[in-house]
């Protein structure tokens, strides 16, 4: 099913007699049963006001098209939407609606926020086939903004996003990366915490545990970036001598976890307090990559590994990102929700999707 408009989508939802697997380009793989429903046909940029740092686009608009239009105006999506096609071995074209539905955010989240934090408004079709508009086109209009943010990260289980309004930001004049070698995860987390707690506006803090390399990113005006890089390196001398490299650096690969692409094994995503990440990784084993200053980790383990069982009651949230179909069926992509959260989630789904049409069986991140 590929509707060409919101009205056509609403009619399809009203006429549906069974579950729907909702997506855009399906670049993250099909993780729910039912007839496939894509919003890729509901596409196009509706409004771009560079002076107001605002963009409004239909949900099926390719992310590449959004980035092209913004780039011509010297602007960007500050939250760095991830592209997991290489990691997952999928095809298709990532869409703006898919990015919002999954709250897909890259390394800059530690400084600029996640996708939901720049979401000004949203239109979506609920499970009754009713079109709903929420939020506004400027940040001052916060009426109902919480509902817009609720849709971000719901993985299509509450409604089918048809249009989004976003705040965008200028592209920086210069980028520099500070790299420190010889770090284990504990030392890396301490280094990244010191950097993120400094006044130097770090926009990326990541660690490659296999190589023992910790990287910190600075962005802004060229002169200011050079000064900040020098001062940050001096501040962090306790963690070694920093190599400073100008230019984009490896941040796109860090964002998309391309180091694990093509390597055998299952890929998990862990979320835990940075102060406890080193302990969690010691239990997890495998190959490891840290992001968000140590708040997120990507772990590559042997096929069929139950990483949640290995972590036990540690408290880390483990999401299965890449695995064989039988492993996904046995373990589930998302961990079970706490009873209180599960009750709230059930009530929300009952309110927005009373017939249980959208991505059934998928627990949202």
TrEMBL record:
<protein>
    <submittedName>
        <fullName>FAD-binding protein</fullName>
    </submittedName>
</protein>
<feature type="domain" description="FAD-binding PCMH-type">
    <location>
        <begin position="1"/>
        <end position="171"/>
    </location>
</feature>
<dbReference type="Pfam" id="PF01565">
    <property type="entry name" value="FAD_binding_4"/>
</dbReference>
<dbReference type="InterPro" id="IPR036318">
    <property type="entry name" value="FAD-bd_PCMH-like_sf"/>
</dbReference>
<keyword id="KW-0274">FAD</keyword>
<dbReference type="InterPro" id="IPR016166">
    <property type="entry name" value="FAD-bd_PCMH"/>
</dbReference>
<dbReference type="InterPro" id="IPR016164">
    <property type="entry name" value="FAD-linked_Oxase-like_C"/>
</dbReference>
<dbReference type="InterPro" id="IPR016169">
    <property type="entry name" value="FAD-bd_PCMH_sub2"/>
</dbReference>
<dbReference type="InterPro" id="IPR006094">
    <property type="entry name" value="Oxid_FAD_bind_N"/>
</dbReference>
<keyword id="KW-0285">Flavoprotein</keyword>
């Amino acid at each position: 099913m590929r509707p060409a408009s919101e009205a056509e989508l609403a009619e399809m939802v009203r006429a549906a007699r069974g579950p729907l697997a909702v997506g855009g380009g399906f670049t993250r793989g099909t993780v729910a049963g039912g007839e496939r429903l894509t919003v890729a046909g509901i596409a196009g940029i509706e409004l771009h006001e560079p002076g107001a740092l605002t963009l409004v686009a239909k949900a099926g608009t390719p992310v590449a098209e959004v980035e092209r239009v913004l780039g011509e105006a010297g602007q960007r999506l500050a939250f760095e939407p991830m592209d997991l096609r290489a990691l997952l071995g999928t095809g298709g074209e990532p869409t703006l609606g898919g990015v919002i539905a999954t709250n897909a955010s890259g390394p800059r989240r530690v400084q600029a926020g996640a996708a939901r934090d720049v979401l000004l408004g949203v239109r979506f079709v609920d499970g009754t086939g009713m079109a709903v508009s929420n939020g506004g086109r400027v940040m001052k209009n916060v009426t109902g903004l919480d509902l817009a943010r609720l849709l971000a990260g719901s993985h299509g289980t509450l409604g089918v996003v048809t249009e989004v309004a976003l705040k965008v930001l200028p592209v920086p004049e210069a980028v520099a990366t500070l790299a420190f070698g010889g770090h284990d995860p504990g030392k890396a987390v301490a280094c990244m915490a010191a950097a993120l707690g400094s006044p130097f506006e770090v926009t990326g803090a990541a660690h490659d545990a296999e190589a023992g390399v910790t990287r910190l990113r600075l962005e802004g005006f060229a002169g200011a970036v050079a000064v900040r890089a020098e001062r940050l390196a001096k501040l962090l001398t306790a963690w070694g001598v920093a190599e400073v490299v100008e230019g984009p650096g490896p941040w796109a690969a860090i964002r998309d976890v391309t180091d694990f692409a093509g390597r055998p094994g299952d890929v998990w995503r862990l979320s835990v307090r940075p102060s406890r990440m080193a302990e969690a990784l010691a239990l997890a084993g495998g190959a490891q990559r840290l992001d968000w200053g140590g708040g997120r980790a990507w772990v590559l383990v042997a096929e069929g590994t139950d990483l949640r069982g290995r972590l036990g009651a540690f408290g880390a949230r483990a999401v299965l990102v890449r695995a064989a179909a039988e492993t996904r069926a046995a373990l589930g992509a998302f961990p079970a929700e706490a009873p209180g959260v599960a009750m709230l989630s059930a009530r929300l789904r009952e309110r927005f999707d009373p017939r249980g049409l959208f991505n059934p069986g998928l627990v949202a991140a």
